[in-house]
Input
Amino acid sequence: MKLVKDNMHSKNLIKHVLATEAVMKALAKELGQDQEVWAMAGLLHDLDYEFTKDNFEEHGKKTVEMLESRDLSDDIRDAILAHCEKKERGKLIEKAIYAADPVTGFIVAAVLIRRGSKLSDIDVDFLLNRYKEKSFARGASRDQMASCTELGMTLEDFLSLSLKAMQEISEDLGL
Output
């Protein structure tokens, strides 16, 4: 968390990586994987964002460079590269973070369009209806979220798991 706070100054970006950490941990639990490794990949995946937002070609690569001296699993580094398509998705963790990254913003957008609502006010049916609206949360790639099928999950199950994971840390997210 110190790395996140030292390198990210945007509160929304910090909330995004916290949400992605929660979703990745829930996915790891669901899929029988190492929850700590998957959560760490979610937390660190955008560590370089504020440095690379104007040079997307470097996004992910700079994070791996920043983490070089750290004793982290290769799975974490590979997931970071895969989430921004700097590495082909082969491992389950790489497929998971690719789908998890946009779903957090999508869910936050769903909460924000319902003035005064919280994560607890949102359900999967509401998310599925918004998912069909191409103009809603355009920045949240439907293709990436739909790649949850590579994890053996339906979109409905993936959205449900993601929503529950984010609801569990709703205070941290301010939602």
Observations:
- DSSP finds eleven helices and no strands in the chain.
